[in-house]
Amino acid sequence: MKNFKNTxxxxxxxxxxxxxxxxxxYSQGKIITGNVTAFKxxxxxxxxxxxxxxxxxxxxxxxxxxxxxxxxxDVLKFNAYGFQQxxxxxxxxxxxxxxxxxxxxxxxxxxxxxxxxxxKKSLDFCINTLLEDNNNYDRFTSIADLVQTICPSxxxxxxxxxxxxxxxxxxxxxxxxFAAPDALLVVDGVVVESITSIHPSLIKTIKVLVxxxxxxxxxxxxxxxxxxxxxHGI
Length: 234
Prior knowledge:
This protein is an alpha+beta fold. It has four helices and 14 strands.
């Protein structure tokens, strides 16, 4: 009987210790405030913001603002129908700005209006005039970072013999012997020698094409191609 009581006491103390540890861990979390937009400047109402670790969920207000408590080194997930999901790792930030990318199709348009993320007037204006800002390229500090995010196998280097920029991408097959070993670089439809001077914030669209995807460039695209469209030309 004495051993039974001791066991109960030990179990109770253990449970209390676990509760204390969990409470302390949660209390050591942090408060994050933030803002969610689309097309860089339009605030989104009613976007779901969820923490990966603590599973706390809030929604943005009519100005796109939110406040949420999360654990250290947590991940915030942002969800809204008609937009690409976004995940942000929480480090030392106290305030986070997130720009969601509009998915360009009819269903997305209907969903955005259905859930009142944007008014019809604002959405129509964005689609008609701000589609070139429907990206997050300005988050990158260099074109190399952007290309390597799209295609992790991409490599930037300089030919030591002539100083020419070389960009290689995975071609998903044997490289052609009739083209240069590097990918074809195309800006606004024109083949160029270098793209490193282009800041990501100036880019409207970018495509990293490998294998048959670059087939429309013929032999020149045999080792892949990087196609860039600038917002306002070169």
